[in-house]
Design goal:
This protein is an alpha/beta fold. Helix content is 38%, strand content 16%. It has 13 helices and 12 strands. An 8-stranded parallel barrel has the order 1-2-3-4-7-8-9-12. It has a 4-stranded antiparallel beta sheet with strand order 5-6-11-10. Helix 4 packs parallel to helix 8 and helix 12 packs across helix 13. The longest helix is centred in the middle third of the chain and has 22 residues. It binds D-mannose (DNO). The site of D-mannose has 11 residues, from strand 4.
């Protein structure tokens, strides 16, 4: 298992040197922040990112994310093949630079969705939160605006302001794309990229939909154990794998992460491990990583991962904003550092109590 943190590139308010000081964190996952989805990645840009991380004594453990252009998700004839070609070229560049883990998602229009980026808790910390009634009441374009206005001046991953312009048009383009069509478009995409992944031994790791249900009437297909298994079986190649996101999956209390892990055929290559407080009826708050702070049994989740033979890249996920830290909602240093240490502690106990043969 390799413990990492997410790093937002040269403009990240958290310097790599601080990340390095978290004992047990070996690397970071990052991306090229000055590219837009669909653009071909240059080897030189990847190398620059990699070098800057290595100079700080860390490694680039994977890419989060190489985003998939919406025409691929929609299945626009002609356009999607061109964007798939571009994606393959980016994977080639990554492979040439020795990167072998790529996280991506297949959520239409929006990446993760929340109704509040700084909900005040009883302990004075703030967290990201989701309230279904608030989402139902909001115009998607306004949500885009409010996320950007409330992100402390930082660009949140998946909510790049330049995408705001396209929102209305994208909604129109998704008309007629139901879950089944979206799934077939994912399969088409995966089949096309498997040869380059095989050539460079790149593991593709799909992130779950967050939350695990349809928002704004858009289709969602990576939201349960059954559809993860279906996706793995549809393209039965070891390079077609999963980013297990405990928080996203558990947004739906019917998803039992510990029941799902053993069903994923050993193809979890990346894990985002965080806790949430489930309130039922579609509402949840994010929480500290500690089991006692939320609804999830983090020890059981880590043990199930351990027992499944997991040996991939892992990271703590969104943290609370604590000790007066501003910065990017969910991605401050302090609570993620506490999360990494806590998860490392659980893992050390597992290794000592249940040594692997
Ligand atoms: C949110 C993240 C997501 C994730 C993408 C993967 O904080 O977990 O933005 O990186 O969905 O493509």
């Amino acid at each position: 298992m390799k413990m990492t943190l997410r790093y937002f590139g040269p403009t990240d308010p958290i310097p790599l040197q601080h990340i390095r000081q978290i004992a047990g964190v070996k690397g970071v996952v990052s991306t090229l922040y000055d590219t837009t989805p669909g653009e071909v990645w240059e080897r030189s840009a990847i190398r620059t990112l990699k070098n800057s991380i290595e100079e700080a004594g860390l490694e680039l453990s994977g890419i989060e994310s190489v985003n998939v252009h919406d025409t691929i998700k929609i299945g626009c004839p002609g356009h999607r093949d061109m964007y798939i070609e571009n994606y393959i070229k980016s994977l080639e560049a990554l492979g040439e630079e020795g990167v072998q883990l790529v996280c991506y998602n297949f959520m239409p229009v929006f990446d993760w969705t929340r109704s509040d980026l700084a909900k005040m808790r009883e302990d004075g910390a703030t967290v990201l939160s989701y309230e279904q009634a608030k989402i139902d009441a909001v115009d998607p374009e306004k949500l885009f605006e409010s996320i950007n206005e409330n992100s402390n001046g930082l660009v949140l991953p998946g909510w790049e302001p330049e995408r705001m312009e396209q929102i209305k048009q994208l909604f129109l383009m998704y008309q007629g794309v139901d879950n089944e069509k979206l799934f077939q478009n994912l399969v088409y995409f995966l089949k096309a990229i498997m040869p380059v992944c095989n050539k460079y031994d790149i593991k593709m790791a799909i992130h779950q939909d967050d939350p695990s249900w349809s928002v704004f009437g858009l289709p969602r297909i990576i939201s349960s154990g059954d559809n993860l298994v279906r996706m793995l079986e549809a393209v039965d190649d070891p390079h077609n794998g999963v980013t297990l996101c405990t928080g996203s999956l558990s947004s739906n209390p019917n998803n039992d992460v510990c029941e799902i892990i053993p069903r994923l055929k050993g193809r979890i290559y990346f894990a985002h491990v965080r806790n949430i407080r489930q309130y039922g009826n579609g509402n949840f708050d994010e929480a500290a990583h500690l089991s006692a702070d939320g609804s999830l049994d983090m020890f059981k989740i880590m043990k199930t991962l351990y027992d499944s033979g997991f040996d991939g890249v892992i990271r703590p996920d969104h943290g609370r904003a604590v000790w007066g830290e501003g910065g990017m909602p969910g991605y401050g240093l302090y609570d993620r550092a506490m999360g990494a240490s806590y998860l490392n502690g659980i893992w050390e106990s597992l290794e000592k109590i249940f040594p692997r043969k």
